[in-house]
Amino acid sequence: VLKTCELGNVVGLELEDALVDSGAIGNVDFSASGEELKRIKQFVKVDRFQHVVPSTLPIVNQRNANTFKSRAKTSLTNWGTMKFDKIFFSAMSADCTNIVACGHPADATTANIAKADVLTTTDVEEAKRRALLGVDANGNKVPPLLPVRTTQNENLGFYEEVEYFVMFVGTNSARHIKNDANWAVARRDALERGKTNPIFNGALGLWDGVLLLDVKTDTTRQSGVLTSKSKFVGFGNVKTSNLAQYAGAASQETEINLLVGAGACSVVVDQGVAYYDWDDKNDPRRMNAGIDRVFGLAKTKYSASANDGILEGSIFDGKDYGVIAVVASTGN
Fold first, then answer.
1. Of 191, 262, 285, 297, most Cβ neighbours within 10 A?
2. Average pLDDT rounded to a whole number, residues 94-119
């Protein structure tokens, strides 16, 4: 969702709930049934990140000044992109309400994940099942995920809707699922032979209507899927979250892979990254360059308490709307 915003704003994004009452049947007038259209919102806090680099050479020489500006703008832009991604993965991983513990599908937490419990096709299928049915590990009803894309298959004049989801996976999980026997057989037998086959080019692909994307694993120098030992980047609605809650047995390190549907994240953006450069007020022979970005980003999650108690206790109240955490051992 895109809107103009300023630092300090709290932006209310309209949410729409389906009509669920049974209505009326038979020879009755309209007064026999009725249901209000609920006016509900998610509130997203607008925040800002920024960074500055100083020149290391005197800028009295115009060539030095131009070189500094060029290098600073490129490096700061790259940093800003990585920072945005780290904020996104942190927000999406914070305190997930539906968790698939790899190797332990009946567990609501990751406490029993052992070193050998790496990501498999069975775990992907379990996450897809929960997304479609709207259930958690205990069978409780939770918001079903909306597909990111829907296509139709035709067979003998009948049409079947096929729903697709996306899963962001880390480096370790991508490596492990390639070693899954079911995955390997499917890639060998079902796809085109030759150098474009994922067996040879390293790409992942679809499994049970889930597109697996290897987005790498978060480190100091790159963004990606977080682990139970990653540094959480707080921003906007969520400033802190304990990622160690996703650790396995005996503090086994895990990757927090994310199955997402449409509308999983709400974003309020101003004008993107802004670049600045200016002379150092304490030394006119030096220069500084910086960037900032003002926006709001939050995992889509409805709060009844922020909406005068509407839908309190419903399957949406305090539950993740468009993401399921698929937590797997790193295997390390």
1. 297
2. 98
134 touches 141 (CB < 8 A):
yes
Angle made by CA atoms 193, 162, 126, in degrees to the nearest 5: 85
Cβ atoms within 10 Å of 182's Cβ, excluding its own: 14
β-pairing verdict for 210-214 and 158-169: parallel
- Rounded to two decimals, the pTM is 0.90
Can you tell me the distance from the alpha carbon of 139 to that of 214, in angstroms, rounded to the nearest whole number?
29
Q: CB–CB of 264/323 below 8 Å?
A: yes
SS3 (DSSP) at 277: strand
pLDDT digits (tens, 9 = 90+) for 169-187: 999 999 999 999 999 888 7
Look up residue 210 and give its DSSP letter.
E
Label residue 315 exposed, middle or buried (CB < 10 Å: 0-12, 13-18, 19+): middle
Dihedral over Cα of 259, 263, 264, 267: its sign: positive
The tokens 């086994």 sit on which residue? 252
Amino acid letter, 59: I
Express each pLDDT in 32-85 by its tens digit.
999 888 888 999 999 999 999 999 888 888 999 999 999 999 999 999 999 999
Strands of the chain, DSSP E: 10-15, 40-45, 47-54, 99-101, 149-155, 158-169, 205-207, 210-214, 254-260, 265-269, 274-280, 283-299, 323-329
> Rounded distance, CA 282 to CA 31, Å?
75
pLDDT at 8: 85
Percent of the chain with pLDDT over 70: 94
d(CA 292, CA 284): 23
